[in-house]
Amino acid sequence: MSKISPALKVLIESPSAKPNTTPAPAWIRDVYSRILLEGRQKQYGIRPFVALAAATTFTLNSPASLVALHSITSSTSPFLTPLSTAELIREIGLKCISFNGIPRTINCLGEFRQSMAVNPWSKQLSTIPTRQVNSQNINSVKVRGQKLWDSIYTPFETKLVAKLAESHPDLPVHILGSHYGPLLANPPETEERRKLGSVGRCLTSVVAIACLRAQSGVGPQVLSHVYGLKKGIEQGWAEKEYGGGAGGMVDAGETEALRKLGSDEGLEWILTSVDKIAKAISGLRGNFASVWELNRDEEVVEGEIVKKGNTEEGVREVVDKEEEEVRKVRESKL
């Protein structure tokens, strides 16, 4: 059996390398709750909130925060039960693999599942896989992946494949054959699929935007998936988004909510919400990228990022620069 020296083990587990998952900050429930309330006021729907919040949290490697998100969502939504909320979060985490890599999804899904085990309903969580690729379905998997790719990147879908192939001939082969086909594009509806969470075409774009925004450094990809969400809604996918699965009851207004989410204002809400969650979870220790570290004069108070010592008489200065810039642009257009 292979062995490693104690010194090497200490080096691997060095705190400076941040080897562990990110703990849930005490204020994360407040942050989630504020964003959920804002989304309800703007009528953006509950599932898009779960998609952006969970995807951001997976990106920041904080399974304990996922437990808080599950609690808040399932206790306040008339459409998502604790079971269906858990299945939705698990499905979101699976799709995060395409944007964050495998390790964070392994960490978060594993600890999340263990945390859910104390609930009697957790015995009903699905245990049957639905994405196996075999000789009978490989062609249909390929077709589904190509269809999703074309939907997101039209009218540049062919040029993009050629450009990726210039970087490495197998790059588009792997992206389409290992991600868009088997993972990002949903398999056909079956009895077992209906037990799992449903993350359809538009919510997949929300997941992509949230993951990429939270990890930072990939602005071109964020832009691509912002356009991808808009295109999905223009192509009529909003009407198909909430078609069953473990998504619980379907709200008749969810389709319209998704259309609103695809507006510039809705997309601004997605991005600024991701920023708030990212700063709240990893601002005190850094994470995927140091961009989310809190400035020395910032702190989190009741879910808001504020200037230290500026809470007297309830006056709070939100320091999110992106949000301030958006506000200035809007005012200049009036």
Topology:
Blueprint: H1 6-12, H2 28-41, H3 46-59, H4 63-76, H5 82-95, H6 97-100, H7 102-116, H8 138-153, H9 157-167, H10 171-184, H11 201-215, H12 219-234, H13 254-261, H14 264-282, E1 298-301, E2 304-307, H15 321-333
Antiparallel strand pairs: 1-2
Helix pairs in contact: 2-4, 2-14, 3-4, 3-5, 3-11, 3-14, 4-5, 4-7, 5-7, 8-10, 11-12, 11-14
If you had to describe this structure to a student in words, what would you say it looks like?
With about 325 residues, this protein is mainly alpha-helical. It has one domain (about 20-130, about 185-334). The chain has helices spanning about 5-10, 30-40, 45-60, 65-75, 80-95, 95-100, 100-115, 140-155, 155-165, 170-185, 200-215, 220-235, 255-260, 265-280, 320-334; strands at about 300, 305. A two-stranded antiparallel sheet has the order 1-2. Helix 3 runs parallel beside helix 11 and helix 5 (about 80-95) runs antiparallel to helix 7 (about 100-115). It is globular, with a radius of gyration of 20 Å. The chain starts with 5 loop residues before the first helix and ends with a helix. About 40% of the residues are buried. Residues about 245-250 and about 310-320 have low confidence and may be disordered. This is Dol-P-Man:Man(5)GlcNAc(2)-PP-Dol alpha-1,3-mannosyltransferase. InterPro entries: AhpD-like, PTS1_Protein.
Apparent shape: globular
**Largest beta-sheet details:** 2 strands, antiparallel
Mean pLDDT: 88
Which spans have pLDDT < 50 for at least 5 consecutive residues?
A: 243-249, 311-319
SSE string, helices as H and strands as E: HHHHHHHHHHHHHHEEH
- Report the structural category: mainly alpha
